[in-house]
Each structure stands twice: as C-alpha cells, then as structure tokens.
Amino acid sequence: MIHEAAWPQGTPAWVDITVPDRNAAMAFYGPLFGWDFVEGGPDMGFYTMATRHGQVVAGIGEPMGGDNLPPAAWTTYLATDDVDATVEIAAAAGATVLMAPIAVMGFGRMALLVDPAGAVVGLWQSGSHTGANLVNEPGGMIWTEGLSHDLAGARQFYGTVFRYTFDDMSAAGFDYAAVNLDGRTVGGLGGTGSMLVEAPPHWQVYFAVGDTDAATARAVTLGAAVLVGPRDSPHGRLAILSGPAGEQFTLISTTEPESPDAPA
Fold first, then answer.
1. Same-domain check for residues 67 and 112
2. 264 CB contacts (<8 Å, ≥6 apart)?
C-alpha cells in the first residue's frame, strides 16, 4: 500500500535503525528487502532513507558522539500533530524525555521518549517528510508493538497520550492488546509472555515478506541470526531475527500484493 499523506495522530508513521556502520546495514537490508538508498549529506549526519520502488520505507542512521553509544536498535515513531504538546502529555503520564522536540530541517519535528516501562519510542510531526510511504506489503513495515512486562501500565500510558482504545487478546500466560485508533487497529501492546525472546522493554518492528522461510534463509546468509522460527502464527508465518549489529526485528509473511504502480 502506498500512503503519501501525513499519518493520523497516534499511528506508527516511521521506523529507523541506529547502527554503528550504516554501510554495513545497507549491505544487509538492501538485498534482504530489495531496498535502495538515498544518503543524506554531512549536515544530516549522513542519515539514509531506504526506498522500495521509489517510495520511502525506513531510515538508517549512526549514533552521534563516540562514548557510551546505544546498542543497535529499530525505533518506532508515532505520528503527532503537535510534538511539543504530546511530549508534555507523555512526561506528565510518566515518560522520560530522551530527546526534546527538535526541528529536522524542513522534514518535520521529532522527539524521543522512554515510556514508563523503559521502552524507547519516537514521535514524528510531519513536515515535508510524512513517514513511510510504502507499508503492509513485501519490503515494508507491516506491524509494530510495544513490549514490556506491564500491559496494564502500557495501556494506561499510551491510552492517555494518544487516546487509544484496546481489544484485549490475552490468553493464559500471555498478555496482549490490539491498539485501536478511530476504529482501526494500528499496532499492539504486549505484557507478560508476549516477548518470545528475552530482551529489555522495546518496540518491535515487523517487516512484510512474501515467503518467511526464504527471507529468513537469505537473512542468515547476509549475517543475521535466527532467534525464533520460522513458525506459523494466526497472522502469518513469522521469524524473529537479530541483524548483523545485534538489532532485533521480525519477518512475517503477507499475501498482500505489491502496489499496482510498482515496477514489475
């Protein structure tokens, strides 16, 4: 699906990865997802846009500074109409402001938070860059979920900040809720039992592929490690991987066809 307008407030709008070596990341994700890349200049810290069929899908950046660098990780950015106001609400609800709102040239405004459970999440207020333009089909983001061991606390926090509603999908030993926005499911929140791999609280990014087993095998040849799967789930066959820099992400199969205006 191609989406070029600004995403509604509260929708996962963008994902990017911070890695020690952007060139190594491009060498991995390019062949895996069929991505091309547009590299920014030194004024942008060489921040790189990944594209598929000419549509932006994700970002790749390197950490600033030289000491105490954060581990490589994917970050989910939730859309907001007013990043300053959203940061105020989030801070009052218990978030820690990791990066105060800043302008990113004319592309938009962003902020980074640590939610009360300890998961890093971004906020994005669109300017000329509205976020991911290609989603829910092979090579694009298809799902994101905030994972911790406190579903009740996550629901309280994110429901306060974005006025989400939730559909409880929990079962014995498994706490999970679908996140709804104006009647649409836009993501998920997981608590106890939802993290299939031992990890700190985080937002997990899922990328769509046509064949999970083939994509997993390809990822391994490119330097990934398989953490879970491939295995069947009610929503598609999935595998959880660790990329070459140690970042965690999920592949999931989709029957969604490529956009009609995508090249053959």
1. yes
2. none
Cα separations in angstroms, 168 against 159, 165, 209, 242, 253: 14, 10, 27, 29, 24
CA distances from 39 to 42, 58, 111, 244 (A): 10, 12, 22, 20
pLDDT in tens, 64-116: 765 566 789 999 999 999 999 999 999 999 999 999 999 998 899 999 999 99
User: Are 145 and 195 contained in the same domain?
Assistant: yes
Domain closes at, from 97, 126, 155? 126
Q: Is residue 261 part of a domain?
A: no
The encoded tokens of residue 195 equal: 């993290």
Q: Are 187 and 226 in contact (CB under 8 A)?
A: no
Please state whether the predicted TM-score (pTM) of the whole model is above 0.90: yes
Give the number of residues written for the chain.
264
3-state secondary structure of 255: coil
| 49 CB-side CA count, 13 A | 19
